[in-house]
Model the fold of this input.
Amino acid sequence: MKQRIFILMLIIITFFSCVESGKGGIDIDPGSWDFGEIQEGAVVDKQITFTNNESRDVVVDIITTCDCVSVRPARINLKPGKSAPVRIILDSAGESGQEEKVLIIKADLKGFERKFYFINATILGGDEASSENTTGSTTEIKSEQEVREKLPEVAIDYYYYPSCAICRKFINTTLPALGKELNVSINLNNKDIGDPDVYKEYLPRLNRLGVQERAFPVLILGKKVLQGSDEIDSRLKDEIKIYLENKDTDQADEAVAQEDPDLAAKMAILPAISAGLLDGVNPCAFATLISLLTALALAGKRKKEILVIGVFFTLSVFTTYYLVGLGAFKVIQAASSFGIIALIIHWVLVGVLVVFAGLSVYDFYLIRVGRSKEMVMQLSDTFKKKIRNTIKERARSVTIVFSSISLGFLVSLFELGCTGQVYFPFITVYVLKIEKEAFGYILLLLYNLGFILPLIGVFAVTYSGISSQKITKLFQKHMSIIKLLLAVLFIALAVYMIVTK
Done:
């Protein structure tokens, strides 16, 4: 009993640590900074202090959104309870009026994946014309020759912070001049990186392109990512020429996205339900269900009691799996916001899926030759014994509702060692490929609805009078097919990951 209570407490603590930010966190002193009035062209600096209130090391990255601001150092490793200084340097050349600059603070700490640090200054004597607002959504820059004839088109996405004077100069002066020089029509899509929705779309896009966030502004041309004004200025001209020669774009994907931007999400609905359904009939989950039905029969449970147990057991399983999936979703989502970590997760998971597919085929062979007890992809004897003992104990309880809920919770956790072989890869592969986070939650919901459908079906036929022995024979007859289908699912997920990289 003590062991079960300990496991329950451990799972609850682990889950909430996944979905909630650390309570210690990081302090930044001061929380923002105003340089006050300074003359245009002046270079000023300020030291701020980062303090780690966590019980572990925390790595902090500071990313500038304008070349007029620099930080030293740009990365710090904070020991528990320790502080470190960071120097902010503002070069006001070319700036004017009231300016607000932003630093993006990122840390390998849940709940602190991205914070803004604001820097303000009133710059005297600058050229007011340079402060022209360019935050319009989509701007088309045309050369005079384009009026007379159709020019090659180049589509550019430009992620920047509107207060960046260098960025405004690039948009209003540098890019139009480059368009004239190369004799092309540049369609510029300005994206305000300070907008949370823009940033939420931006990070998964970088991950798909295999690039780690390191500087702003960011320019994306086809599949090419340029970060920082220096890199953009030095390479953009050549990259446009390469773009026009090779057409290095995902034109087919872009066309689909223009027709229906949510098409990829909609297409994920059926695979989500199918994967959940297949996971629900895999030998781990189904064998446990048969054990439960047998225990209920031995305990002399009547049809009405079986119905009540079935309803609350199924609801408990659904809720537990959904919450576990939600916690895993948050953890993987936070980890994948770091480009190098996302890349490692991607290729490790591809390898794991291929291994799982091979093991599933091997299990298929073992079942076909009558050696199903030797299957590799199954729970250990220890966990099987724990599940059987838990079922026997709860099946005899007179408090049917509470016992059914607690049984569903405990069995779900015990089974994760086996059912998680499908569930967690699905979350990583499919859910995180969908850019809209809300739809990721819906996919989790659909997966778990598919997962409990076999539960509902088995309880329904049991309630109608069919014995657990008949259900067991039917399952054993098709168990090898289920293993083969699981192998196909693993291969399909691996291929999907490689194709959509």
User: Anything to note?
Assistant: The chain is about 55% helix and 20% strand. The radius of gyration is 29 Å. Residues 288 and 486 are 18 Å apart (CA to CA).
